[in-house]
Amino acid sequence: MTKGDATELVPIHEPVIGLDVHQAQITACAIIEEAGGATRIEQRPFGGFKRDRRELAAWAATLRPDEVVIESTGIHWKSPHAALEGAGIRVTVVNARHVKQVPGRRTDIGDAQWLATLARAGLLRGSFVPPAKLRELRPIARQRQKLVGLLQSEKNRLHKVLTDAGVRLGVVVSDIHPRFLC
After folding, report:
1. What is the mean pLDDT of the chain?
2. CB-based contacts of 177: which residues, under 8 Å, 6+ apart?
3. Phi/psi at 17 (5° precision)
């Protein structure tokens, strides 16, 4: 799709921002319809640091977009998503495979503009992103799950060592690892 083709799609959202996110850089492309009906494209690069994400959120807030779209590539989308969400901007995370299959987009600016064009026409379906509170609790729950698994492995190892040494606790008690030992 070329720049001229973007006008053939019927806009549903105005204005929109597409973000192409990498580890050290975020490329933003905003498509804005002017009062006379003309379409203006504004492109800006942002760095990957926290101050850059705050600058991105402030810039996006001035445009008051209906939609901001980010591809869900790796973990790099999470920080810009959180910065924009913290600024009260609605962000849609889309599956990269759904938007990457169009030839001719080999630059970050091209990717960002393509995302904005698809978002403007309402052609993107967002991925599920849990609420912020749940996202904060996920690493804690995962760490707990990992520790519980390690504890069980150590209990099994201890049981095997005792059994190899001839101590058969399983014959005497029904539960060789009672709750109060945890």
Report:
1. 83
2. 155, 159
3. -130, 130
